[in-house]
């Protein structure tokens, strides 16, 4: 189970790697419309990241890629679910997300942020649904694959941080 | 993802998802599986030997197909999972419900 | 031959589409280290763009992709050529570029910007080198394939804008 | 890009760049071509039938190979260019120097 914190306020759970990320010359940053088709492009970004970081072993690549895609899939699927009920937004503000990726010698890290509706989730209390459930496994799956899964709402945006430790 | 569907002489349908089974392609798989069951093919093998990526939506499509097949008196079995697929089966503890078979040919033998 | 302007100062030649781009909800933005390996990721971005914009015909796709890759290739190859001669830079500032892509009903547009050394080129005067030359064709090739090729140096960054008209 | 190199019975070397011929892969092509010439294979066909992308660095590698082959008394010919390749040949007016042949087999016939 990962270190996690969900909208608990304060800086307590904020992963230290976030500061490193902002200054890392090799970070990859993509910003795009939050639609399902963008997922393939994020897979390509992960391929690019891994191709240049042989220190990330195959089992960690699989877990990390799956977790990033789960969290991004949730943003695409849920973060804008109630948009149609909201007053029309300025199109420049519509449904965009940003993803940052970085691999260091110690960990592989992703941050995702979106301008969707506030998420209220308790990441400290995720469990797998019934065996025959067809949905509801995404967050629990990411949480069990990651060493860090962290969430915060700041200034109208949702911010996620995901990391797997190396070695 | 590309999805190949064929039916064997013994009436078992074989579905081969090639590439990434994610949110986008899971919809396609779910429809294909329910069409098969609706069309009378309730014994289905999903060959995961060329599935390079699986997430919870792909898993949901498999479970959906499994339930539909069982309701119609058949079953859905998975064969030849790649390491990426095995990893997700294990993390979700679904390796019992979706017990992986070694080959497509023998998936319905036991 | 495209509309072009190279560091001529003033806003005269600034392509109008730049303002539209900044507010376009479907623009794609990538920022990464300016290394040769990132070219493949930019090819993937272009594939993603084209997959969602059938209005961009094959001949235009080919010309636009080639031009984007030429300009990016120049950034990777030339914009940092003299870095080793410069005083050591803060690693957070090192060799990064940003690319934005957008397709509208009227054109397909890319902007590239980098923090490399100032480029002094006259884009109004590009010609193909000798038939048997092994280099020196990149800018002329991009210029002949594009409808707009524009360059400006602002606040320590090089800014390029490339566009092909549709239909 | 992947680069296949083979030598035919008549001594002509056939080089097949598969995928994108850009800055990164042009270096590889340039080396392959000069190794061939240095090794005594100065008659070379570059089969561009699977080259999905070409830029000025790929073009530079082809011209470099052409010059090296000619200096060694041979020649370099290009065959089966894809539309993306033809488009770059035309924009650079190199469709004369790099005259495209219809097939690899007959590339050295005339
Ligand atoms: N980014 C998000 N924005 C809003 N709600 C979310 C987000 N991520 C998850 N949720 C909520 O948490 C629930 C559980 O998510 P998850 O475990 O991924 O399963 P699923 O997506 O299959 O429902 C979702 O159904 C949704 O209500
Ligand atoms: N982004 C850039 N930064 C600095 N110099 C550049 C840049 N782009 C082009 N140049 C200069 O212009 C010249 C011509 O570029 P180009 O036509 O692309 O041919 P080539 O790259 O093969 O030399 C380069 O050799 C370089 O000196």
Blueprint of the fold:
The complex is a heterotetramer, with 2 copies of chain A (167 residues) and 2 copies of chain B (110 residues).
Chain A (H helix, E strand, L loop, with lengths): L2 E4 L10 H7 L4 E6 L5 H13 L6 H22 L16 E8 L3 E8 L23 H8 L2 E7 L2 E9 L2
Parallel strand pairs in A: 1-5
Antiparallel strand pairs in A: 2-3, 3-4, 4-6, 5-6
Chain B lengths: L1 E6 L5 E9 L1 H16 L4 E5 L3 E4 L1 H16 L3 E5 L3 H9 L8 E2 L9
Parallel strand pairs in B: 2-3, 2-4, 3-5, 5-6
Antiparallel strand pairs in B: 1-2
Helix pairs in contact in B: 1-2
The structure holds adenosine-5'-diphosphate (2 copies).
InterPro entries (chains A, C): HATPase_C_sf, HATPase_dom
Pfam families (chains A, C): HATPase_c_2
Family (chains B, D): Belongs to the anti-sigma-factor antagonist family.
What does this structure look like?
Chains B, D: Belongs to the anti-sigma-factor antagonist family. Chains B, D: Residues 10-110 form the STAS domain. Chains B, D: GO terms for molecular function: anti-sigma factor antagonist activity. Chains A, C: Residues 33-159 form the Histidine kinase/HSP90-like ATPase domain. Chains A, C: InterPro entries: HATPase_C_sf, HATPase_dom. With 167 residues, chain A is α+β, with helices and mostly antiparallel strands. Chain A has a domain at 28-55 and 65-95. Helices cover 30% and strands 25% of the residues of chain A. Chain A has 4 helices and 6 strands. Chain A has helices at 17-23, 39-51, 58-79, 138-145, and strands at residues 3-6, 28-33, 96-103, 107-114, 148-154, 157-165. A 6-stranded mixed beta sheet of chain A has the order 1-5-6-4-3-2, with helices on both faces. In chain A, helix 2 runs antiparallel to helix 3 and helix 3 (58-79) packs antiparallel against helix 4 (138-145). Chain A starts with a strand and ends with a strand. The model of chain A is unreliable at 5-11 (pLDDT under 50). Chain B has 110 residues and is of the alpha/beta class. Chain B has one domain: Transcription Regulator spoIIAA (2-Layer Sandwich). Helix content of chain B is 37%, strand content 28%. Chain B has 3 helices and 6 strands; from the N terminus they run ββαββαβαβ. Chain B has helices at residues 23-38, 56-71, 83-91; strands spanning 2-7, 13-21, 43-47, 51-54, 75-79, 100-101. In chain B, strands 1, 2, 3, 4, 5 and 6 form a 6-stranded mixed beta sheet that branches. In chain B, helix 1 packs parallel to helix 2 (56-71). The longest helix of chain B has 16 residues, at 23-38. The chains are: A alpha+beta (167), B alpha/beta (110). Chains in contact: A-B, A-C, C-D. Strand 2 (28-33) of chain A pairs antiparallel with strand 2 (28-33) of chain C, so a sheet runs across the interface. The complex binds adenosine-5'-diphosphate (2 copies). Residues 74-75, 78-79, 116, 119, 121, 135-140 of chain C line the site of one adenosine-5'-diphosphate (ADP). One adenosine-5'-diphosphate (ADP) is lined by residues 74-75, 78-79, 116, 119, 121, 135-140 of chain C.
């Amino acid at each position: 189970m990962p270190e996690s914190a969900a909208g608990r306020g304060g800086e307590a759970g904020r992963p230290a790697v976030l500061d490193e990320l902002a200054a890392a010359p090799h970070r990859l940053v993509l910003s795009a419309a939050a639609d399902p088709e963008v997922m393939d492009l994020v897979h390509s970004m992960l391929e690019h990241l891994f191709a240049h970081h042989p220190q990330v072993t195959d089992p960690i690549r699989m877990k990390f890629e799956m977790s990033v895609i789960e969290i991004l899939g949730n943003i695409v699927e849920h973060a804008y679910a109630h948009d149609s009920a909201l007053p029309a937004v300025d199109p420049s503000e519509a449904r965009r997300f940003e993803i940052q990726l970085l691999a260091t010698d110690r960990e592989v890290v992703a941050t995702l942020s979106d301008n969707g509706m506030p998420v209220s989730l308790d990441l400290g209390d995720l469990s797998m649904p019934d065996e025959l459930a067809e949905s509801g496994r995404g967050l629990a799956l990411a949480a069990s694959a990651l060493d860090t899964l962290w969430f915060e709402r700041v200034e109208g945006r949702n911010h996620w941080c995901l990391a797997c430790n190396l070695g | 993802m590309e999805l190949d569907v064929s039916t064997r002489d013994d009436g078992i349908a074989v579905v081969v998802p090639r590439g990434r089974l994610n949110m986008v392609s899971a919809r396609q798989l779910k429809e294909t599986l329910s069409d098969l069951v609706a069309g009378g093919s309730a014994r289905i093998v999903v060959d995961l030997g060329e599935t390079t990526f699986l997430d919870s939506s792909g898993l949901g499509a498999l479970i959906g197909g499994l339930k539909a097949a069982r309701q119609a008196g058949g079953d859905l079995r998975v064969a030849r999972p790649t390491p990426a697929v095995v990893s997700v089966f294990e993390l979700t503890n679904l390796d019992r419900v979706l017990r992986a078979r070694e080959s497509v040919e023998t998936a319905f033998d036991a």
